[in-house]
Amino acid sequence: MAKVVETPLMKQYFDIKAKHPDAILLFRVGDFYEMYGEDAVMGAEILGIVQTKRANGVAQHVEMAGFPHHALDSYLPKLVRAGKRVAICDQLEDPKLTKKLVKRGITELVTPGVSINENILNHKENNFLASIHFAKEVCGISFLDISTGEFMAAEGSIDYIDKLLNNFSPKEVLIERGNKKRFEEAFGPRFFIFELDDWIFTTSAAEDRLLKHFETRNLKGFGVQHLKLGIIASGAILYYLDQTQHTHISHITALSRIEEDRYVRLDKFTVRSLELVDPMSDEGTSLLDVIDKTISPMGSRMLRRWILFPLKDVKPIQERQAVVDYLFREPETQELLDTRLGQIGDLERIISKVAVGRVSPREVVQLKVALRAIEPIKAACMASGEPVLCRIGEQLNACALIRDRIEKEIHDDPPSLVNRGGIIAKGVNEELDDLRAIAYSGKDYLLKVQRRESEQTGIPSLKIAFNNVFGYYIEVRNAHKDKVPASWIRKQTLVNAERYITEELKEYEEKILGAEEKILALETRLFNELVLALTEYIPPIQMNAGLIGRIDCLLSFAKVAEANRYIRPVVDDSDAIDIKGGRHPVIERQLPLGEPYIANDVYLDDEKQQIIIITGPNMAGKSALLRQTALITLMAQIGCFVPAESARIGVVDKIFTRVGASDNISVGESTFMVEMNEASDILNNMTSRSLVLFDELGRGTSTYDGISIAWAIVEYIHERPDARAKTLFATHYHELNEMARSFKRIKNYNVSVKEVGNKVIFLRKLVPGGSEHSFGIHVAKMAGMPKSIVRRSSEILRQLESENRQEGIAGKPVKAIASAAEGYQLSFFQLDDPVLGRVRDEIKHLDVNNLTPLEALNKLSEIKRIITGK
Length: 870
Prior knowledge:
Layout: H1 8-19, E1 24-29, E2 32-36, H2 37-47, E3 52-55, E4 61-68, H3 72-81, E5 86-91, E6 104-110, E7 129-134, E8 138-145, E9 150-157, H4 158-168, E10 172-176, H5 180-187, E11 193-196, H6 203-214, H7 228-243, E12 256-257, E13 265-266, H8 268-273, H9 287-291, H10 297-308, H11 314-329, H12 331-341, H13 347-355, H14 361-384, H15 387-395, H16 400-409, H17 430-440, H18 442-457, E14 463-467, E15 471-477, E16 489-493, E17 497-501, H19 503-535, H20 538-564, E18 570-572, E19 577-582, H21 587-590, E20 600-604, E21 611-615, H22 622-637, E22 646-650, E23 654-658, H23 671-685, E24 691-695, H24 703-719, E25 726-730, H25 739-742, E26 746-756, E27 759-768, H26 776-782, H27 787-804, H28 813-825, H29 834-844, H30 853-868
Parallel strand pairs: 1-5, 7-10, 9-12, 10-11, 13-23, 18-22, 21-25, 21-26, 23-24, 24-25
Antiparallel strand pairs: 1-2, 2-4, 3-4, 5-6, 7-8, 8-9, 14-15, 15-17, 16-17, 19-20, 19-22, 26-27
């Protein structure tokens, strides 16, 4: 194949592109960022911009698309959100200063997991980059949010890593090259993954990179030295930052360990089915939606994490509760914190931008406003007398020196870009003030010179003007040219006048023409010096951000408790969960105005009432009751008040749910298979401190298979001496009510209904005892099922009940029900409905082979008339 002759610009482009083949390359040409070839085709489609062509040597063209450089912040997020890696290639020298091809190079590689661009980030969520290192049975994992500086590591089983991936929801995951299949088998295909070379995932490479970054001799100070696999994953993240040109990372000040034993275990099924942070449907509401009244972005992000990582230790839970209790009773403090938190903005991300050298003048002013707002928050905390708030107050640092320096040096309302000028305040730099006086008060100066020269020479009509040929000049009419001083230099003769220049005017011209450029350079230098000084304050400001986030979350809890009538639960190390008058926090907020939520009591412990079997019809509220018990327990363990009249929560270590359909049919797993996988995970991992919720277990198989499996599971949970998990078991299988007779810690309850005539009223109240009916036929009637089917269902039910009365699980009901139902299951014509009988007769006597299409339509019309009576 003949070698393609390329233009120098395109050769430069292809050389740079070859180093980043998997990224869209934004190539700076003058005032535009341009994309070529496949990048242009893909970029134009994602961005909705015009695709054109650029000449590339003789008779050749290459696809091209582009946008103005100042629109980068608008277009870059669209590319990243589309899952693309974007290499930004800038001009590395001023085109005016070179006659050759301008030097260009990659200044940043933006990926879904590595970005500090405001428009890409969601202020309510972290933007985590994860890294996973696989060993035989276990994995190491690390998470970094470059926009906040949070850096964490952990290691554990595939199951534990899956839980962390689900809860942290990283936007991008780094893995060792060749491990893609293994990753997707373990964690599914939903993550955006990127493969790195295998040498990066080694102990020596990872430790070297981490020690170089933290400038320490070992990692003992971070408490992660025993996490060998976690360290490898963490080192890989720092190598990736090097590769993506993110080298200014002084805000990443620590690597912390995710302590598994501190937090309640919530698997992904539980997080999803309890709708903790995301609703299952677009129009739904999550628990986070209900209890998030945070004001600051730090609080918003922290609350999300608190919900996904509830505490297991009683002391820190009680400390959170004490602050909520204090704020609940102190409306004035609430109001002050409310106002001041609203002034703080995203302190965490702004200080991270200082570290990477991307902070704008406006953000520096916001930093000053935030530091000013911290002063009264600190004072309020110190004056509260509440021990936890006092400790927070002591740790808050208003950084007065740098705050006052920003106040003194930066205009209150500067532009967002440094190159716009007008950033540095008056009186900061004498040279800058002089240059501004020249550049912005030139007319006054020239008038002064004009007046002075006119007086000294006695030429009344003398005037000073400017043209592009020889700059500033003095114009004198011919009548007065004999009064011109000898020091003036004549530059131009006109019909009626002469034009002169003076040494003073030439000096002034040089000053004024260079002033604006000098002002910009000087302002940029002064601003960069201030940003450099700010980098010394990264650790205290990061600590402030964390403390502010904490105050914000606790204030949110106090506001929600007040608005929704929540109470402070007793959280202790007992083995009991005792909820009186509990309500579902989400459902009660969605009820029509004025309709009360029917509250319920739930009691569970290890000795008297370990397992509650709840029966009752569909729509009666069994699932809501299960979920509200889990949500109240979880809310109590994040330090929040709860929707109940009273609650005592003995801390749980794990919450398991097998609620509703979460079928993986798309990956070839049946409903029943998914159910059994989730159930076996629960049975293998539960402890005596676990809370287990089963809803309609076994519905994915035949009735008596289902009953048998459900019975065996409940029996196993009851009889296992080392793991008496507190369990709520909602079921349609009334046969399971028999278990209460044989197992002392199993109790029967039902969600009551009231029959009035032929109608059913759902009371939604949990009462002792099993339920006799499922009322499924009544529910079908409410759903608008045809009356003939409802009527016939009732007849069949009565027949089945009479034939199988009192057989119980120990008898042989399967055969009896099967034989009784055999006639109804498949044969349409054995139904004893007189209307259907007539339809059967009509169809039986048809000679289908000799029926014309018109006769068939007429016959269908007759059958319709028989059924509808019209």
